[in-house]
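Why should sequence recovery work at all? Because a backbone constrains its sequence more than one might expect. Tight turns favour small or flexible residues, buried strands favour hydrophobic ones, and helices have their own preferences. The token representation captures these environments compactly. In the example below, the structure is given first.
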């Protein structure tokens, strides 16, 4: 009996979405090529907080997806040695309020941070900590290491091919995509295409004519503490009242197992 050759799938975009799609399609037997214009996890997927929550989408349209994703991360971590390979671990999440009184008092105050619920590494005028995630419901990965570990496994175990090149357009015939055309003219024949271009999706006419996709900018900085071992696994979600602003800021702080800490501003 003739066996069908595996489906040729081209996944465009080497962020976490494209890489995960390539990994699971190839694991299921598809012949997958991943096209990335720059580097794997070069964009948001390499800079994110890597925070995972089981039930924060409950009651909304994303509930099932969020819960499935959280549980899949746990399974993947067991398969791919997540704690060592990409810093997978459970952690607690706290919300708390920080109120600056003045530039001067902020730099010297350690006043109300003595609450026992606060991690010992939080100093300054922090108060009202509330637990919003526990070791059963919140976790984290190092997003760049996660994405790179997954693509390495996809290449080594399931034969995914990586092409560094920029998708320019799709050739569509009778409602079916026949091939993808890269900048410079390279053409790759396909049975199916997955577009995972993140905020660049709007640059592809085929998508922008059907959906409105736009990017959302967020800043992130990485801090290296003097005593890495003192930094416990607590993600912090702050309501930060700066003395010279009316509207609170809402930075988030994600400590990493390496001791590095990544606040999002
Ligand atoms: C600061 C920050 C913090 C975040 N924190 C979290 C968090 O804690 N938890 C969480 O779940 N999410 C978080 N997110 C969101 C998360 O990072 C994104 O949802 C996710 O990374 C999106 O992945 P993606 O693969 O869709 O897109 P991207 O990571 O943007 O990847 C798209 C890829 O497509 C490539 N590409 C674009 N155009 C082309 C082309 N024409 N041809 C070939 N390749 C192309 C790009 O080079 C890029 O590599 C955060 C985001 C930011 C910015």
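From this structural description, the recovered sequence reads:
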């Amino acid at each position: 009996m003739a066996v069908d050759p595996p489906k040729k799938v081209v996944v465009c975009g080497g962020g976490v979405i494209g890489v995960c799609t390539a990994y699971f399609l190839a694991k299921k037997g598809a012949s997958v090529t991943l096209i990335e214009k720059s580097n794997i996890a070069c964009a948001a997927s390499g800079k994110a907080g890597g925070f995972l929550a089981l039930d924060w989408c409950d009651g909304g349209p994303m509930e099932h997806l969020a819960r499935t994703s959280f549980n899949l991360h746990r399974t993947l971590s067991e398969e791919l040695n997540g704690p060592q390979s990409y810093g997978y671990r459970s952690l607690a999440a706290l919300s708390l309020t920080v109120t600056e009184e003045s530039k001067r008092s902020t730099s010297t105050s350690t006043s109300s941070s003595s609450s026992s619920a606060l991690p010992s590494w939080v100093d300054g005028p922090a108060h009202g900590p509330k637990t919003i995630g526990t070791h059963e419901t919140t976790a984290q990965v190092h997003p760049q290491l996660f994405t790179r570990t997954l693509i390495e496994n996809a290449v080594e175990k399931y034969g995914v091919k990586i092409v560094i090149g920029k998708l320019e357009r799709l050739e569509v015939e009778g409602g079916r995509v026949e091939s993808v055309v890269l900048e410079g003219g390279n053409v790759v024949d396909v049975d199916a295409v997955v577009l995972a271009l993140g905020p660049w999706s709007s640059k592809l006419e085929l998508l922008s004519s059907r959906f409105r996709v736009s990017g959302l900018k967020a800043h992130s900085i990485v801090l290296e503490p003097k005593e890495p071992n003192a930094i416990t696994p607590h993600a912090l979600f702050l309501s930060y009242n700066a003395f010279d602003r009316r509207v609170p800021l809402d930075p988030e702080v994600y400590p990493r197992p390496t001791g590095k800490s990544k606040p999002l501003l």
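A few observations help interpret the result. Residues 8-50+142-208 form a domain with the FAD/NAD(P)-binding domain fold (CATH 3.50.50.60).
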